[in-house]
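User: My notes are a mess, but here's the protein and S-adenosylmethionine's SMILES. Can you give me a structure?
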Amino acid sequence: MLVTDNQRIMSKKKDINKRPFDEETLAKLDIFEDYAEAWIPTFIMARYDEIHIFDFFAGSGYDSKNVPGSPIRILQQIRKFIRHIFEKGTKIVFHVNEYEEDKFIELRSACEVYLNEYPEVRRAISVKYYCRDFAELFDEIYPFIKKFPSLVYLDQYGVKFLSQKYITALENTDTTDFLYFVSSSHFLRFGNTQEFQRHFNFDMDYAKKEPYKYIHRNLIKQMQASLSETSMLKLYPFSIKKGNNIHGIIFGAKNIRAIDKFLEIAWRRAPLNGDANFDIDEEATIHQLDIFGNRRLTKKEVFAQKLEAFVKERKKVTNKDVFNFTLSLGHARQHASEVIINLKKQQQVDFAGRSPKIDFKYIKQDLDIVEIKWI
Ligand SMILES: C[S@@+](CC[C@H](N)C(=O)[O-])C[C@H]1O[C@@H](n2cnc3c(N)ncnc32)[C@H](O)[C@@H]1O
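Assistant: No problem, the inputs look usable. Here's the predicted complex:
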């Protein structure tokens, strides 16, 4: 069967809005919503004139038990900052799309009911409704994504729209953050088919070298590697296990502040590993010793070792170096602060003051640069 047929059948068979959202869908929606909560005020407080949010696969608004889906959650987050929106005068344009007509009618009605209930939100934003195929709509409204600070949600079924074309288009923008949803384990089933390869050049042999549970991480590694070495776009995975399938979020952004916010959310939602809704590295049993009396290290312990080696090797680093190093390894800045403070207690490093100030607010425009020295 061709992948396209499979996709079509799947999208008919499983309509997530016709049932209660399952735990995995909620895990995804919570992260989508958390990111809107972090993203919206950043641009409002920086007094941008106009910002755009795109929900390209919006569904019908709620699940069968009236639990809000992505478009309503985005409206709720806009409402949270309504006072600031009016104070700073930022124009917010919210683009919502759903290509199935009956779902689109429900979607528009759900958003309108919300906007009638909260007329201040209606006054604060401009909502553009579309009932279009993503493939057509994307090309048409791409100029807005390129022109304005944009937050783009691509909550597709399956993998169909994860193609090089869209990644390249998003990469060619300066201030776009995006959250893709992708059924990564489909790559193992269909990744070698011509249809798939036409969209994304997936290296099946490379993927099979790692355990199946790492397929989403592996996909992101492949995607990152497919970008040019000088690309500023950074991609981060969040794996979501559902039964035997591995799905996941791909977060993409160029700006370190955006990456910082996403990683903070990811580690808050998944305190064990920061990139999965399950114990992907089997850390629950990590305290058990192996036959040689050793135990494996947790992801955070491995990070602590790497950060210590980084400072030791360089002898002198700044809070900005540590911040960038931490983000590049997919860790939250709080982890780095803990490690550096601990190293100071052990008299292995020294820095002035009580805090190493590993935080965007200190390093932006080199406002408060702290030197951290290996003793
Ligand atoms: C995973 S659901 C999105 C759920 C939604 N984000 C929510 O929170 O309820 C994917 C949606 O995309 C729609 N869809 C599928 N193919 C599409 C396409 N080519 N263009 C636009 N929408 C599409 C489906 O009808 C479905 O409602």
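The pocket of S-adenosylmethionine is lined by residues 11, 16-17, 29, 57-59, 69-70, 97-100, 103, 133-134, 155-157 (CB under 6 Å).
User: Great, I'll file this with my notes.
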